[in-house]
Amino acid sequence: MTAHVPTLLPAHACLIVHGEDQPGIVAAVSAMITRIGGNIVAFDQYSDNPEGGAYFQRVVFHRPGFAADRPAIEAEVAHTLGGFDLQWSLTDQSVPKRMAILSSKQDHCLLDLLWRHRRGDLPVTVPMVVSNHTTSAEDVRSFGVPFFHVPSTPGPDKSESEAKILELLVGNVDFVVLARYMQILSADFLEKLGVPVINIHHSFLPAFIGAEPYKKAKERGVKLIGATSHYVTTDLDEGPIIEQDTIRVTHADTTSELARRGADVERQVLSRAVLWHAQDRVIRHGNHTIVF
Amino acid sequence: MTAHVPTLLPAHACLIVHGEDQPGIVAAVSAMITRIGGNIVAFDQYSDNPEGGAYFQRVVFHRPGFAADRPAIEAEVAHTLGGFDLQWSLTDQSVPKRMAILSSKQDHCLLDLLWRHRRGDLPVTVPMVVSNHTTSAEDVRSFGVPFFHVPSTPGPDKSESEAKILELLVGNVDFVVLARYMQILSADFLEKLGVPVINIHHSFLPAFIGAEPYKKAKERGVKLIGATSHYVTTDLDEGPIIEQDTIRVTHADTTSELARRGADVERQVLSRAVLWHAQDRVIRHGNHTIVF
Amino acid sequence: MTAHVPTLLPAHACLIVHGEDQPGIVAAVSAMITRIGGNIVAFDQYSDNPEGGAYFQRVVFHRPGFAADRPAIEAEVAHTLGGFDLQWSLTDQSVPKRMAILSSKQDHCLLDLLWRHRRGDLPVTVPMVVSNHTTSAEDVRSFGVPFFHVPSTPGPDKSESEAKILELLVGNVDFVVLARYMQILSADFLEKLGVPVINIHHSFLPAFIGAEPYKKAKERGVKLIGATSHYVTTDLDEGPIIEQDTIRVTHADTTSELARRGADVERQVLSRAVLWHAQDRVIRHGNHTIVF
Amino acid sequence: MTAHVPTLLPAHACLIVHGEDQPGIVAAVSAMITRIGGNIVAFDQYSDNPEGGAYFQRVVFHRPGFAADRPAIEAEVAHTLGGFDLQWSLTDQSVPKRMAILSSKQDHCLLDLLWRHRRGDLPVTVPMVVSNHTTSAEDVRSFGVPFFHVPSTPGPDKSESEAKILELLVGNVDFVVLARYMQILSADFLEKLGVPVINIHHSFLPAFIGAEPYKKAKERGVKLIGATSHYVTTDLDEGPIIEQDTIRVTHADTTSELARRGADVERQVLSRAVLWHAQDRVIRHGNHTIVF
């Protein structure tokens, strides 16, 4: 039984606007929404420097018949923002984003996302799970989700396995989640994929970049461990951070115990990042994110 | 040395609007701000029910010459919002609010607020501290703040001491903070005072209402203790909550230890509530607060 | 793939001792363990008042051949502690406790426990899940765990359904977990069951006792919500607290959103309480717990 | 008014033992304490590997007349532990440690420690504060604590100012706290000082080692900031960590705002580290700490 949180909003649209800050953007956008018969239900804005910085805005508005009238509304938005030199995107909040999950052997993040999705807590569909191991196949399929096994090509050249994954993904998904997927994706793969990729790293970045962060955390003797969800770029563990969290540990926790306890933080952090991305709450700006 | 966070904003104003939700409020307000030559630097809004609920909006805008042109700008706001049946208030963000502190023997919240104020972290002035004990006099005056001692009238009738406190406060302060002030204020006092009063209660309300919450927490065997800052109403510990927080304790913590550790949470929670109130971030709505 | 945390310890025993504090208990117990050829690997003690209070001690020791020699070792413990007027229990840390789960429609706590168990993170077996609804049957059985459906008898008298549940449980389980089981258990049931029962309540007790805590939390306007795991007694929501936690919410969270976000806290709090109980880390003392 | 937490324990001693793990240590120590007429009030032990690792033990015991009989008791401890090849130290829990504080311009950690000390929450005396700036002189002296101004020698060679600080400290203090002291101490200084030095670093180490961690945190776009208290070694920001904590920040927090909010975490983390050190709860082991 779900908690019945409405994650899809019929006849609602989300308008994201960002670019150089200029006076009058709020007025122009809100007047336009009134003009097209919309009612604003959520409005967030942020300027990183009121005197000539970058401007970010997210507006959710209710507009009966949005889906049918979308072309006209998009034209109106383009016309309104024409004078401002801003980037914008308009999404239909009644349409779920299509999320593919890539996973390896560790299943805690994978199963947590599938379970949240089934419960109705994520405004997404899950067209497929792709894994380089077969261990989770039965679990994934028990959620009614297709499972594809693409073994990793041995050796440093992953182009063969990456090509197979691209065949599955391209055109079928709106974003990809790496749920403890233990392979590094090439720049070529990311470019051909063409949609955002969200990763979960099992440390509080930028501490413990790279492999075996729990082992490194144990060696350094930290008193907290963490997890970081970020957009994947060609720089390993250096992409824009969406969400992070930490929990307290002690000298008595072994590396295995850190991994066991960290799993709880990982799945919470990842699920929040996925939810916010799916709700169009995250705007990328250079190596930063604005999360509304 | 301060951290140099600018808490007062020259030539900035804050417009708070709340009332029945209706289409077009954002458009009307933002167009008005453009019209008067203002530039929006922060915009928050919330509707507790998009289909006919209550609407809340906070806009901070930059407007050169705001202080001089304030009467004309207020007239423009009144004109703009005239058709909407909304309540509104307009404050000058370059003018600090005048905050009086009432205290008793416990000094941790009192000294923390004075220290944050001196450091430049609170956009307030502190015209006076009033205490029913003399123990903090020297500390308070070392911060350059006047200290007045008003002993509590013995017995249940506090009208005499309350009258003395009112003489000191009325007309001189914009809000009052009870920094672990151990006297209950009468409805008559609150009415005559006429400005908001913020209290810090040393529990996670509504758990452990009334006296000796740490003793009650020890008796119940809780694993977390907390603190709650709220606006004072005539119902003891029942006013609108502004901020709360908790920390972890164990079976080994005595009641005294809970009090010692809780003091850290109390001063953090109170200082956040005071900051947000002073920045006009808190809107009262029945027994709730909207905190932007 | 599991994190490989060894939760069962071959040839290890746990000795819990509690009662009136007296000098020499540590010396007597540790000398005894040396005498029987054991090596202490974890030692915790607590006295709630060094001058004549209650004493609590948990010792885990390694002793090759413990299972075979247990009768002789128990006799040695009894002999050693004979002069102290203390209660004690000795458990084999290589033997998992048998945990039954009672559930209703909400499945987040249920599935989380089953998943943690499968992952190897809980030193228990799960002989059965009993539910008054059928919705989780397939999920439970996919974990290889028997599922029994016992509908709740309509009306206030639950003796018929309770009798059926007792038939299933008595003799087969070492403790019972109520994973959001929405029925109140009678004093008669608890007595006949004769093993500890652990509940998860979806509030920070003692705030919001009884039904619909998230609704009450929304009405009161709290800024944090919480969850509490406690041993069940005949006083509803009043039993000894094992673990609690809270998370931050805002004015914008609806009651449904509180329920969705609270589900994460509930499953974390319950899983910690279950782990600690299964590891013999929790000692009940009146309405309190000592958690080592 | 203080919370009256008894931080000094008359007629109590603390015995710290560490070294190679061997069977029988607990039994030998506890029998010895019984033999000398002591009663154990707190007992903690930890072994980093039950099969031949390092062993750590902290025992607090009540022994009437401890101060007078200390030589005889020390001989008994030496005799008891003679066969074990362990290091040990015995401290009188009724004697406060002498803590010097080194500070620069930032006063939040300095004043917080002085205030906690005056409140009775730290089992220390504060014989002096040494600063390379004069800004805090009046504040420090208002707490009844001597203030010495030792300007930092310009240029990289700090031997002159370090020599002056050593003259003040050596022989007069049991440990030193760097309360946001913005000078790096030389290896020579640390060796001549000969007592533990505790630092507070304004990041979650090992993230953002070195100067300007809040600026680096802003640049990386983290969603949490933290603070770390550690023992000072000759490797900058690499010493054994005693305590850490984090708080949540957002994209909207400027570097100055991070510094303001971080100040709260810094003083909490430092005060906990100081308390635990003063209570002999922290054992150093290589680059790690065991905190009981």
Outline of the structure:
Chains A, B, C, D: Its EC number is 3.5.1.10. Chains A, B, C, D: The active site is at residue 237. Chain A has helices at 25-35, 66-81, 108-119, 137-142, 159-169, 187-193, 213-220, 255-278, and strands at 12-20, 39-47, 54-62, 86-92, 97-103, 124-131, 147-149, 175-179, 197-201, 224-231, 241-248, 282-285, 288-291.
Topology record:
Four copies of one chain form a homotetramer.
Chain A: E1 12-20, H1 25-35, E2 39-47, E3 54-62, H2 66-81, E4 86-92, E5 97-103, H3 108-119, E6 124-131, H4 137-142, E7 147-149, H5 159-169, E8 175-179, H6 187-193, E9 197-201, H7 213-220, E10 224-231, E11 241-248, H8 255-278, E12 282-285, E13 288-291
Parallel strand pairs in A: 5-6, 5-8, 6-7, 8-9
Antiparallel strand pairs in A: 1-3, 1-4, 2-3, 9-10, 10-11, 12-13
Structure in words:
Four copies of one chain form a homotetramer. Chain A is an alpha/beta fold and 292 residues long. Chain A has two domains: 12-92, ACT domain (Alpha-Beta Plaits); 97-291, Formyl transferase, N-terminal domain (Rossmann fold). Chain A has eight helices and 13 strands. Chain A has helices at 25-35, 66-81, 108-119, 137-142, 159-169, 187-193, 213-220, 255-278; strands at 12-20, 39-47, 54-62, 86-92, 97-103, 124-131, 147-149, 175-179, 197-201, 224-231, 241-248, 282-285, 288-291. In chain A, the strands form three sheets. Chain A has a seven-stranded mixed β-sheet with strand order 7-6-5-8-9-10-11. Chain A has a four-stranded antiparallel β-sheet with strand order 2-3-1-4, with helices on one face. Chain A has a two-stranded antiparallel ribbon with strand order 12-13. In chain A, strand 6 (124-131), helix 4 and strand 7 form a beta-alpha-beta unit. In chain A, helix 3 packs parallel to helix 8 and helix 7 packs across helix 8 (255-278). The two termini of chain A are 29 Å apart. Chain A binds chain D through residues 46, 48, 204-208, 220-224, 226, 240-246, 250-252, 287-291, and chain D through 46, 48, 204-208, 220-224, 226, 240-246, 250-252, 287-291.
